[in-house]
Amino acid sequence: MKIVNDRAAGVDVGSRSHMVAVDQEAAHVKEFGVYTSDHELLVKHLRENRILTVAMESTGSYWQTLFTALQKAGFEVVLVNARYIKNVKGKKTDVIDCLWIQKLHSLGLLQGSFLLSDQLQTLRTYYQHRQYLIEQTSKYINKMQKALRLMNIRLDIVINDITGKSGRAILDAILNGERDAQQLVLLVNAGVKKSREEIIRSLKGEWRDDLLFELKSCLSLFDTYERQIVECDKKMYSALNQSLPDLPEQKLKTIRKQKNKHSPTFNVRHLALATLKTDLFEIPGVSHNTVLCLLSHMGNDINKFATAKQFASWLRLVPNNKVSGGKVISTHTPKGKNRLALAFRQAANSVGNQKNHPLGPFFKKIAYRKGRPAAITATARKLSVITWNMITKREAYKQANNQIDPDEIKQRKLKAIRSSLIRLDINEQEWKTLFQTPPSRNQ
């Protein structure tokens, strides 16, 4: 095959050392460490051999510091998915691997992975750390519920969230020494649905010092993580607002989006509109977390994808069709850990739980034919396509042809009811009995 890159090098990335091949001679392969001084020696070695472009595989997170060092040194760096450069079966060593990478790169057979800009890498770090903090708070809530349950204090039954206003007031009182259920029930908010008698019964149990200590420790750690989430929100807001100084907030039409306990403390809609030039909150089912994930993982870099199909394929939300001999032998959707894809899947799952969502009929049709997991993937793909079109074309949300308006859904249901009544052959007296009083929701 014809040599395309005659000044190409291949790097086999490792956790303790990097193997570098500048040609196909095994004797010329050199090993370098992972420290900053070793990176400088590696750059010097490449320059001595007049290398212009370097290829490396994306091994864990070990490639990132070397990748940055090579880019700053002026080299063209190609980061390749490890599954695309697997060697033929046989003896495997680090030397053989870097020689194989160098050979593929010199022949022009390697394609670089999609990489984010420096600002998006910073935002992604903040977002992923924020998600980690939220996961830790959930773990400590579970531990507190377990400690209460072992003392037979079933606060988790009568109150939805033990760290909410009522639950937190009761926990603080218990840790301050209050044991009387009659006094603890006075701290419960009037909006709690359970009766006072049931709440009192749930607060009577066996108080154990070891479990109370565990409860106190978990609550203290929970508060620590909550404060860190607030600090992380401040950092994210500063990073997002850095390129948009003194931007006045615009008056937008009211769109109700349900907020949870860990929704961002800043105005995500305003920042998203200023950054992406379109209002993603107009998409039904898209939450604060979905938009925040898109801002921190993609932003305007979504324009690097030429089509919506390419964007959905990068998210691994479309089947990987394999055709051989004119027959489709596999339509399996590839697995992945893309957090943006996960955010779209969560939004799609909420679509399936809503009654009058425009994509609801599509979700139910796929769920009936292939199951709920397939419906979540298919709906997530549709949401990603809608998002790509809105951002790249700078247009407002438009309901697609396969999305059904709630009024149209209502008319279809009325038509089906009318047909059922006609088939029952109801007489005049039965019609009067049926419609003399409007039915209530409880009937």
Q: Helical region count?
A: 17
Percent of residues in β-strands: 5-15%
Mean pLDDT: 87
Shape: globular
Helix content: 40-55%
Largest sheet: 5 strands, mixed
Number of domains: 4
Report, as a whole number of angstroms, the end-to-end distance. 77 Å
Structural class label: alpha/beta
Compute the CA-based radius of gyration: 29 Å
Q: Which oligomeric state applies?
A: single chain
Give, in spatial order, the strands making up the sheet with the most strands. 3-2-1-4-5
Regions with little confidence, pLDDT below 50 for 5+ residues: none
How many strand elements? 7
Helix and strand pattern:
EEEHEHEHHHHHHHHHHEEHHHHH
Explain what the structure shows.
The chain has 443 residues and is of the alpha/beta class. The protein has 17 helices and seven strands. The strands form two sheets. Strands 3-2-1-4-5 form a five-stranded mixed β-sheet. A two-stranded antiparallel ribbon has the order 6-7. The radius of gyration is 29 Å and the shape is globular.
Topology:
Blueprint: E1 8-12, E2 18-21, E3 30-32, H1 36-48, E4 53-57, H2 63-72, E5 76-80, H3 94-106, H4 118-150, H5 155-158, H6 165-175, H7 181-184, H8 196-202, H9 209-241, H10 268-276, H11 288-297, H12 308-314, E6 322-324, E7 327-330, H13 339-353, H14 360-370, H15 372-392, H16 406-424, H17 428-435
Parallel strand pairs: 1-4, 4-5
Antiparallel strand pairs: 1-2, 2-3, 6-7
Features:
alpha/beta, two-stranded antiparallel ribbon, 5-stranded mixed β-sheet, Nucleotidyltransferase, domain 5, 443 residues
